[in-house]
From TrEMBL:
Coiled coil: none annotated. This is MarR family transcriptional regulator. It comes from Cryobacterium psychrophilum. GO terms for molecular function: DNA-binding transcription factor activity.
Amino acid sequence: MAHWTFLTNHAHVLLCVSKNPNTRLRDIAEMVGVTERAAQRIVTELEEAGYLERVREGRRNSYLLNTAMPLRHPLDSDHRIGELLTAFSPRTPQS
């Protein structure tokens, strides 16, 4: 049986970075289920497209997300990345 998901690896990388902007590329790759090289390529593509910015902090990278960027598919382009990240953020229990 084929394995598939509703979100792309690019979306999963954005979700990882939104949860921890200081996460290592190695950890992103492990969480997403891709090689470190694939994670590097995805981060570079997201950076080139303006969805995230890499900030060098000593020997580590930190990431800033541009949550105002639209989703890329024409059917979704009226929604912003911030909406996706909010929808998949952990919810706090209601009192």
